[in-house]
Design brief:
Order of helices and strands: HHHHHEEEEEEEEHEEHHHHH
Strand content: 15-25%
Number of helices: 11
Distance between the termini: 39 Å
Structural class: alpha+beta
Helix content: 40-55%
Bound molecules: flavin-adenine dinucleotide
Number of strands: 10
Largest sheet: 8 strands, mixed
Length: 383
Amino acid sequence: VPYNLDPKQQAIRDAVKPFAEEHILPVAAEMDRQPDPPVFPKEFYQKLCDQGWPLFPMKKEYGGGGYSFIEYVTLIEELCYYDPPTCLLAAVTELASHPIEAFASEEQKGEWLPRIASGEVLPAFALTEPDAGSDAANNQLSATIDGDDFVLDGEKIFIMHGDVADLLVVFCRVREGDELERKMSVVLVEAPVDGLRRETLKHKMGMRVATTGRLWFDGVRVPRSNLLGERGKGFRYAMATLDSARVGVAAQGVGIAQRALDESIAYAKKRVAFGAPIARLQAIQWMIADMSTRLEAARALTYKAATMHDEGGRYTIEACQAKLYASETAGFCVDRAMQIHGGYGYIGEFSPIEKLFRDQRVLEIYEGTSEIQRLVIGSTLLR
Ligand SMILES: Cc1cc2nc3c(=O)[nH]c(=O)nc-3n(C[C@H](O)[C@H](O)[C@H](O)COP(=O)(O)OP(=O)(O)OC[C@H]3O[C@@H](n4cnc5c(N)ncnc54)[C@H](O)[C@@H]3O)c2cc1C
């Protein structure tokens, strides 16, 4: 049991476990193996939304759990322990809802958040473009003012659930007359809509159940009242959203690392080589020792960042440290887990390690690569 859990965190762990054992574990491998491109699991997602305890942290008045952030990261950690892409189904909705809850008008919040919380509306967070990934401020998608409308032109890529979402939180630059504003804005786009074409990306390495989309906007028209928050504040909204989302990715890493460790301990005790369980071998014990030590450090960094989020101050560095360390720790742990499992780790038919290995890798890429976390930490400290 993790050190220093408060009763609310324990209650979340106690709620997730029986649900995951009954409804997630039996289908996770099968959902991962569906033909390419994968189809977003609508029924499964609805079941997740309906199962009794709230899946999202948003305020209770909107139908969420009203969770503190430390409770939320515990939920993410637990879901990810059982199945990373199932966890992602929930985490993506929170990623896209965060800017709405934090920065939208009361009217927009009332219109969208309850329907998002119930599962009726699936949202997506559309920031990345083909030529603007790490360099997100280089966004080019334009929202041209035309009377009472914005007309959107451009392209987005790597958007989780963007292929099927009902509501897109689109980062763009407003064009008024001849001038394309330098600063980003955010516009809500209901989908499907005329002028929007979308595809599900194929041959994705892991996290296959939570689908990823590419989107082309060709004269997509939305009312100007769909502007989210203030014009020109989009980059600030994106960065604020990423601070919290990065702690969420850290929690994903902790969940994956814990699963890799638990599977490895159980396997090492039962696998016999040279007449004794491999758990007796110092080589194996050292791998277990390193995995568990890094895992504990990753969890401590993650809970620290989440606690700072709850306290309301700035926590950008702590969020980056947690995301960087926990995602790389998850990478270390799935790699060692595969080594401990030998051939039975590499073949998905025999153990969950092969899938865990594939699911983990993107944690070091999305919500800012490891290099970008190091860049933010280093440049902030040296300012
Ligand atoms: C499965 C998946 C899901 C995703 N989901 C979403 C989503 O829902 N919404 C969304 O908006 N985006 C999403 N993304 C996009 C993701 O955030 C970007 O892929 C990521 O930020 C990296 O951008 P890029 O792929 O363009 O890589 P690039 O920015 O081209 O980077 C390439 C390499 O250069 C390095 N690099 C770049 N700049 C620097 C620098 N200044 N210093 C040092 N190294 C640098 C990078 O670290 C990386 O190693 C998703 C991506 C994936 C793969």
